Amino acid sequence: MLSYQHAYHAGNLADLHKHALLASMLAYLTAKPKQLSYLETHAGRGLYDLAGAESEKTGEAAAGITRALSENWLPADHPLRQALDAVRARHGANAYPGSPLIARHFLRPGDEAHLAELHPAEHQALARVAGFAHLHRQDGFQMAQAICPPTPRRGLLLIDPSYEVKADYDAIPPQIAKLARKWNVGVIALWYPVLTDLRHAAMVETLRRDHPEALVSEVRFPPARPGHGMVGSGMVVLNPPYGLDEEARRIAALF
């Protein structure tokens, strides 16, 4: 359960979909002066090197963020492009921000951030770039359940598991139901892979049934390599911020 490392996949098409929506939500939430809380259950290391051995081994970033920039999928005023440009100005042209550093770009003094990462090496790397946040080396759902509802009460929770264990798909809807009861005003965003074996389908159907007002955004793309089971990316967002449906349609049309 601790074998997954996102460095092999950073900046891929799934990241592009997930991070475009995340940055759009954060830009909207931070445009208002009220303070907020940002929580993340599976934070990863926060910062990735697209010229590193892991990224070059898979080539997924070349088909993702590199292609998106060359084809102007992200105009200069897009929130993800702004976060990416700021991170590259600080860390170099091959840097790619994970969701914690995307959040860091938007969070303001007085906002609170809680990041959970259980993998020891990933947590250690995260600590080097996430001094703005409270770090938790524990199961991300345990962290979220313990903190919710957070202070400030307004805010966003990103749930982005590795789905290494098939049981995750069954366990997630009850976790989200419990979180939504505790934090009925929170934006709760779940990322999931779209798989050829449809392992994700029952989970998404349960979430649609239990949260009929949620936004569900899915995109499809070719497998990263022959036989690879992931052929798309999905996000379920409870209490989606205004305008997110428009960005979801825009980004989906590019795939």
TrEMBL record:
| Pfam families linked | RsmJ
Superkingdom in the source lineage: Bacteria
* Reactions mediated catalytically: adenosine(2030) in 23S rRNA + S-adenosyl-L-methionine = N(6)-methyladenosine(2030) in 23S rRNA + S-adenosyl-L-homocysteine + H(+)
**Enzyme nomenclature, EC number:** 2.1.1.266
Question: Where are the residues marked Interaction with substrate rRNA as a site?
Answer: 4
Q: Which residues form the active site?
A: 160 (proton acceptor)
Broadest EC class assigned to this enzyme: transferase
Molecular function as annotated in GO? 23S rRNA (adenine(2030)-N(6))-methyltransferase activity; RNA binding
Question: What Gene3D superfamilies does this protein's entry cite?
Answer: Vaccinia Virus protein VP39
Q: Which residues bind S-adenosyl-L-methionine?
A: 19, 42, 99, 117, 139-140, 160
- Keywords associated with the record: Methyltransferase, RNA-binding, rRNA processing, S-adenosyl-L-methionine, Transferase
Task: Give the record's GO biological process terms.
Answer: rRNA base methylation
A single Gene Ontology CC annotation of this entry is: cytosol
Among PANTHER family, the record links this protein to: RIBOSOMAL RNA LARGE SUBUNIT METHYLTRANSFERASE J (PTHR37426:SF1)
Family membership, please give it: Belongs to the RlmJ family.
Function, as annotated: Specifically methylates the adenine in position 2030 of 23S rRNA.
Q: How does it assemble?
A: Monomer.
Question: Which HAMAP family would you find in this protein's record?
Answer: 23SrRNA_methyltr_J
Protein's recorded name: Ribosomal RNA large subunit methyltransferase J
The source organism is Paracoccus aminovorans
